[in-house]
Amino acid sequence: MGKYKKKSAAALCVTIGALSVIWGAQSLLWAAQPREDKEMVTIAGMPGNGYRDGMGTESRFASPGGLDVKDGAILIADTENNLIRSLNGDRVITAAGNRKEENAYGNGLGAFVDSNHSRAMLSGPVDCVFLDNGNIAIADRNNHAVRVVGKSWVYTLNGTGTEGYAEGRPGQAKFSYPSGIAKGLSGKIYVADTGNHCIRVIDRNGVTSLVAGVPGEAGLKDGGAEEALFMEPTALVRAEDGSIYVADSGNQRIRRIKDGQVTTVAGGAQALYLDTQYRQPGLVDGDGAAARFWFPEGICVAGDVVIVADTGNHVVRAISPSGQVRTIAGNGEAGFQDGGMEEAMLNRPRDVAWEDGTLYIMDTGNCALRTIAFDPDQWLKEME
Q1: Closest Cα to residue 65, out of 132, 131, 122, 134?
Q2: CA 289 to mean position of chain CA atoms
Q3: Average pLDDT over residues 220-229
Q4: Which phi and psi angles does 202 have, rounded to 5°?
Q5: What band does 23 get if pLDDT is binned at 50, 70 and 90?
Q6: pLDDT range class, residue 102, cuts 50, 70, 90
Q7: Residues 282, 347, 337, 128: is their CA dihedral positive or negative?
């Protein structure tokens, strides 16, 4: 299990009129509401890689990765189709990228092209986020770049298309398989620079700098941001108190960056996994270090609760402010089933997003967008 290089090693467009729904006409957008009995509901896509714009479950994706939601508008990084898609009303449309050519698997070929929405090309877009100005930022993993979908143009914010590590202004910075992206304050964008094992930030002028981790050095170490170590961090989110929560996938942990310090919130495996440098995965609910994860690749916050897409375990977990970890969706077995929490099944969920009582789950292995009702305050009361 895992991401970018680990997956292969383990064998393991749209018109300007359509985009106007995203920019400015959000009163027309529809956010699916799951049934009140907390059943899981599929609202877009179905198992099996493909490409199709259309109504809800008639649409098709190809190993979709990250997602974001804002005022009911849902963004999806359709990774293997090399597109950014959106769910508007009950219809999926293509928001950026094109797939004029296909590979042997029927997926769109990736490339590195800045252009208008329907001509621009991406390569392995794995995460996306709404920015305050209405634009969309993308972790364009295989292009080692952060791209932006503006109101009429897709452009490169930073990254050169070549893997490496460098700080600096647009056109100077380099990334290595960036896999997670999150919005910060004052126009900042945080990036999980997965291959460089560190967390970066891009300011409103496009200047990229280091936040935490030692570039190019994988490991596990809490402490000051400049000396802390990560192992292939894949996702991150900024909480209202300024904390940056990180899904530190290779270490099977959830970490937090706050006030210049990196600490571990949950996960405590110490043994190494087989003959790798990754920590031993597992599926264990518990408090803090007693909990176990299996290559968690997605993260979001819901009120005071941190929610994690525990990808290798085929479940979604919730973490209380005190570090209590509990499974809230999925049963640990890969499958596709809607319904109550005891019967619903997921397959390698890659990301999660929460808004107004609804938890959205990007169920990557099933190429589907699923939802459940989740009230963080009620969940915390039940944990008392």
Answers
A1: 122
A2: 24
A3: 98
A4: -115, 125
A5: very low
A6: confident
A7: positive
What digits encode the pLDDT tens for the residues 253-274?
999 999 999 999 999 999 999 9
Question: What is the residue-wise DSSP string for 245-302?
Answer: EEEEGGGTEEEEEETTEEEEEE----SB-TTSSSBPP--B-EEGGG-B-SS--EEEEE
Backbone torsions φ then ψ of 136, nearest 5 degrees: -125, 130
Element (H, E) at 230: none
Helix (H) or strand (E) holding 382: helix 376-383
Is the per-residue pLDDT at 28 higher than 70? Answer: no
pLDDT tens, 295-318?
999 999 999 999 999 999 999 999
Residue 141 DSSP SS3:
helix
Integer CA distances (angstroms), 12 to 1, 4, 245, 296, 334, in order: 6, 10, 27, 16, 15
The pair of structure tokens assigned to 35 is: 């049934």
At 328, the amino acid letter reads I
> What is the identity of the amino acid at 267?
G
Distance CA 187, CA 204 (A): 5
SS3 100: coil
Q: Are strands 125-130 and 136-140 parallel, antiparallel or unpaired?
A: antiparallel
Q: Which residues face 163 on adjacent strands?
A: none
311 CB-side CA count, 13 A: 26
CA 168, CA 120: separation in Å to the nearest integer? Answer: 24
**Closest of 90, 85, 51, 46 to residue 68, by C-alpha:** 85
d(CA 181, CA 206): 14
- Go through the chain and tell me how many residues it has: 384
Asked if 193 and 209 count as a contact pair (C-beta separation under 8 A), the reply is no
